[in-house]
Each structure stands twice: as structure tokens, then as C-alpha cells.
Amino acid sequence: MGNSRDLNLDGIVADIKAQYEDIARRSRAEVRAWYESKFEELRVTAGRNADSLQGTKNKIAELTQIVQRLTREVRSAKDQRCKLEAAMADAKQRGESTVKDAKHKLSELETALQQTKADLTLQLREYQELTNVKLALDVEIVTYRKLLEGEESRLCAEGGFPMDTSACRSQGGLTYSPKPGF
Q: 3-47 pLDDT, tens per residue?
């Protein structure tokens, strides 16, 4: 049996090694290509995310400013409401005080009016009484004047008292003066 072939193990190992190196090189190239494509995808995604993050940060800054402005406005509105409530309470208190004073003054004025009416009624009665007394006195004066004139006419007609019949009127009455020598 002379089948002995020389096996060239070094050549086979070198072929297998070359094949494995070729496979490893291709695998590395594929991995590198895959890695670079994934890296590029991640870089693009990171860029988009960075842009999105910057936009979100800007939006957050805007919203923060809006929230701060609204917070100031709310605080201002609350302060203004407190001031208005205090002013309303003060106005209400002053109004109640004014109404109370006005009612008190009205009561005083009504009392004074009643007193004035009572005084006026009393003065009117006194005036009416005085008017009645004056009328009665005027009637008496007229009556006495007629009596005096009648008596004077009678005396002159009888030739009694020698009197000067000239009458001097003074303050609504007659005054007589006797003749000289009487």
C-alpha cells in the first residue's frame, strides 16, 4: 500500500487560516460598516434630539417666563383684591356711621320740628287771643267813643258845661280841653 500521500498540513492550515482571516476581515468590515451606519444613525438621531432638546429648553424658558408673569399678575390681582376689600369694608363702615349720624340728626330735626310746631301752635293761640282781645278793645273803644259823643251832644244841647267842642285826635282817641276861665 503505497498510498501515502504527503499531506501538506501546513498548506491546509494556511488555507484554513487564510479562509478564517478572510471571514474575519469580511466580518470586521461588515461590523465596521454596520457600526458606522449605526453610529451615523445615532449621530443623526442625537442631532435631531439635540435640536428637539434645544427647542424644548426654549419652550420651557418661554413657559417659565409666562408662569412667572402670570404669578406676578395673580399676586398683583390678589393684592388689589385685598385693597378693594379693605376699601369696601372701610366705605361700608363709614356709610353705616354716616347713616347712623344722619338718622340721629333726622331724629333731632324731627324733635326740633315737633317742638317748633308746638311753639308755633302756642304762638298762634296767643296771637289769636291777642287778636280777640284787640278786637274786643276796639269794640269797647268804639262803644265808649259813641257814648262820649252822645254825652257831649246832650250836654251841649242842654247848655250845661261850657266846653270847647273842638276835638283833638290823638292815638285814636278824643281829647277835650276846658275853656279858659272855667
A: 446 678 888 888 999 999 999 999 999 999 999 999 999 999 999
Residue 159 main-chain phi, psi, to 5 deg: 80, 25
Residue 60 has a pLDDT of 95
- Cite the beta strand spans of the chain per DSSP E: 168-170, 173-175
C-alpha cell at 83: 385693597
Indicate the SS3 state at residue 48: helix
Cα 152 to Cα 176: distance, rounded to the nearest angstrom: 10
Q: 50-82 burial, b for 16+ CB within 10 Å, e for fewer?
A: eeeeeeeeeeeeeeeeeeeeeeeeeeeeeeeee
Tell me, yes or no, if the pTM score tops 0.70: no
How far is residue 134 from each of residues 139, 140, 169, measured CA to CA in Å? 8, 10, 20
Cα three-residue angle 85-77-96, rounded to 5 degrees: 10
> In the numeric block, which cell numbers belong to residue 97?
356711621
Under 8 Å between Cβ of 155 and 161: yes
128: cell is 289769636
